[in-house]
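We now fix the convention by which a protein and its fold are recorded. Think of the row as the fold of the chain written in a discrete alphabet. Here is one such record, which you should read through line by line.
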Amino acid sequence: MNRMFGFILIVMLIFSAGALWANGQDEGADQSAAAFYKDKTITIIEGFGAGSDFDRQARLIAPFLQEATGAKAINVENKPGAAGLIARNYFYKEKNDGLTIMLDHGPRLIQNQIFGTEGVEYNWKDFVWIGKLIEENILVVVDKNLSGNTPADLAGMSFNMGMSRPFYEPLVIEALGWKNVKLIPGYQNPNERTIAIARKEIQATIGNPFSFAGSLDVVKPIVLTFKHRDFPNVPTLRKTAPAAGQKWVDYIEGFTTIQFSFLAPPETPADRVAFLEACLKKVYNNPELGEKLDSQGWNKTNEFVGSKQLVAATAPIAGMSPDEIKELKYVIEQKYVRQK
């Protein structure tokens, strides 16, 4: 019995020593990364230009991230053009020391490459996902005078949906089985589309839930991607889509999860990525951030979204076959799109 007790004690001591060593290694790596960022300048690149959501979000987050990282300064660098493509090509070749990161439209990042968009000079799978703070949630609204009140009511109806350029709209239509909807491009923002609904030019559109909070005398909410505090009675796509549409819901949820994500260039040192992720999590947990976002009409994600969750969200897209990519491209770019 004494021998057995002694053996168990030795094993426990070995495991405890190993755990302490491992923790010491992690702490050492964290301290090393923290020391590296101390008094350095970090650059956040965004590819949509001054005044865009990405520019405004980057500038709102920058002071919080500077405090969390101990950086001397954080600069926001605008590289607009080609819906973010110019910035992505530049960022792909940027020095991977962890001092340059990007706030990007994750879905466009992937779509441009897998659809063979001309001018793409990067492989999206090489980028390093860091984390995400701000929620992307799609709310579908229709003309308040339209007779249907649920996604099922609208399944057999013919109507026009306005948009700027096709992406989420055709995926929503496909998920819900709305076969008689025409997508009309050229309406650049939700406010313009709401006015077009009031004028009877179109009958439906999508946007961030905040975009329609002041327009419920013109439109009525039908369905959204995730539950939202301001629209507690509006059903989600996952609950309302028929079985045949569930794979399209998968795509939508994956794409919305990686929207507004921070990335690092390929082969950025893992300890620096982990440090930046931890700092973003600190920023997420800062109550002042929530107040700032609320004042601008944005919401924090329900919980902090880290690197592993972002990688998991892209897994269905990363595993798509050529035929599946061809089908996705057809649905997004051709199937429902009509001109004004």
Observations:
- DSSP finds 13 helices and eleven strands in the chain.
- Confidence is low (pLDDT under 50) at residues 1-28.
- Residues 47 and 87 are 5 Å apart (CA to CA).
- The chain has two domains: 34-135+259-322, 139-253+327-335.
